[in-house]
Amino acid sequence: MERNTATSIFESLSSGVRLDVFRLLVRKGARGMVAGNIAVALDVPPSNLSFHLKALTHAGLLSVEQEGRFQRYRANTALMMDLVNYLTAECCVDSLGPCPEVPVMSSCSEAVQPSIALALENA
């Protein structure tokens, strides 16, 4: 991941509403959610939500798929793990000793777990 990509992701998540949307969609996993249900779950007006969904999609944090009249949004967990890897890639490089053990506190599904292990391994 490049610095500009990481910066774009952080800028996208700097809104509380967008952070809530992303975390909600991470919880929903591969099922994702349609926009109307996201609006209801987060008590955000649909017109306001569409602005935030567009920003998250533009940053690559969400994917969107048309389902008839609805749009289903899903969190891009691979990009999320790339960001974690980017943030920890140089962990303890300048330290005289080994890095402290980083516990895996994730409840991600088995499909995402290898990415977490790889991110920690590369740290």
Q: Helices, strands, pairings?
A:
Blueprint (H helix, E strand, L loop, with lengths): L2 H11 L2 H13 L4 E2 H8 L3 H13 L3 E6 L2 E6 L1 H12 L24 H9 L2
Antiparallel strand pairs: 1-3, 2-3
Helix pairs in contact: 2-4, 3-4, 5-6
Can you describe what's shown?
- It is a single chain.
- The chain has 123 residues and is mainly alpha-helical.
- It is built from 6 helices and 3 strands, in the order H-H-E-H-H-E-E-H-H.
- It has helices at 3-13, 16-28, 35-42, 46-58, 77-88, 113-121, and strands at 33-34, 62-67, 70-75.
- A 3-stranded antiparallel β-sheet has the order 1-3-2.
- A hairpin with a 2-residue loop joins strand 2 and strand 3.
List keywords for this structure.
single chain, mainly alpha
Short description:
With 123 residues, the chain is mainly α. It has helices at 3-13, 16-28, 35-42, 46-58, 77-88, 113-121, and strands at residues 33-34, 62-67, 70-75. The mean pLDDT is 85.
Unreliable residue stretches: none
How many helices? The count is 6
Mean pLDDT: 85
Within the largest sheet, what's the order of strands?
Answer: 1-3-2
The geometry reads as elongated
- SSE pattern: HHEHHEEHH
Radius of gyration: 16 Å
- Return the structural class: mainly alpha
Beta fraction:
5-15%
Q: What is the β-strand count? A: 3
Distance between the termini: 14 Å
How is the biggest beta sheet arranged?
3 strands, antiparallel
State the oligomer: single chain
Helix content: 40-55%
